[in-house]
Amino acid sequence: MQYEPIKRSVGRFFSGSLFMRKTLYFLLDILLLRTWHIRKALREARGILPDDARILDAGSGFGQYVWRLSRMGRNWKITGVDIDREMIEDCRDFFGRAGLSERVSFREADLTTFSDPVKYDLILSVDVMEHIEDDGSVFRNFRQSLSEGGILIISTPSDTGGSGVHSPDEESFIGEHVRNGYGTDEIRGKLTAAGFSSINIKYSYGVPGNISWHISMKYPVRLLNKSMAFALVLPFYYLIAFPAALILNFLDLRLSHEKGSGLVIKAVK
After folding, report:
1. Is the pLDDT of residue 169 over 60?
2. What tens digit of pLDDT does each residue of 39-95 get?
3. What architecture does CATH give domain 4-204+262-268?
4. How far, in Å, CA of 18 to CA of 96, rounded?
5. Residues contacting 243, CB < 8 A, separation 6+
6. What's the pTM value of the predicted model, to 2 decimals?
7. Which pLDDT band holds residue 6 (cuts at 50, 70, 90)?
8. What residues contact residue 55 under an 8 Å CB cut-off, 6+ apart?
9. What is the DSSP string of 171-196?
10. How many Cβ atoms are within 10 Å of 92's Cβ, its own excluded?
11. How far is CA 41 from the centre of its chain?
12. Where are the domains of the chain?
């Protein structure tokens, strides 16, 4: 299944006014479980970041995490980087109209070659690494771009059900993924090889999170892939699915998971 065409369609629908774009960010913030886990990780990191922190959103997409970061720290300088030129231009337009261009910027770049030596206090990368084959180069570039003691936060699928894959003969739910997910030992080893220390890895998307993901994302996206006409009934579907997804997201955030289809990783330079 191809996710990018749907993602682009959603982005175009919400890209008109400032109100529509902020509505998109609000919906993504409460519906997508990964945003719940990232919010928690960012709140924990905020206490040790400087008031004038320099932050990189590596793979910024719609810009929803840049938006959140810009509201968490009024003096933070935030750079969003993405390989998709259309999204970069769209984000530049929105954040310019939102009056944030003085401390928020966007750059088109390939993370396998992008590096800003000793520049950032925090690098955030959400659901990006599963799209990049040469992950070793990216991890090395991340470390080089961090200041001493800088923090890297990654959200990515795990190898225990990530991308909707539960056995070796299954294919990823998302056609653009180059890997189904990371094992904890695998990604710890790759980050250690890149020079990171104090690596903390937690599972997300445990039992409640996986149920939430199926009803809030997987089933609707699959139907939209078959026909965009499903978008007409999507609001009615979410009237039922949305409350259940919120409860499940809350449980997933509060519980500790021995296994899960997602990983949240924090590493320090």
Report:
1. no
2. 999 999 999 999 999 999 999 999 999 999 999 999 999 999 999 998 999 999 999
3. 3-Layer(aba) Sandwich (3.40)
4. 10
5. none
6. 0.88
7. low
8. 69, 73, 76, 77, 78, 79, 120, 121, 122, 123, 124
9. PPSSTT-SSS-B-HHHHHHHHHHTT-
10. 18
11. 12
12. 4-204+262-268
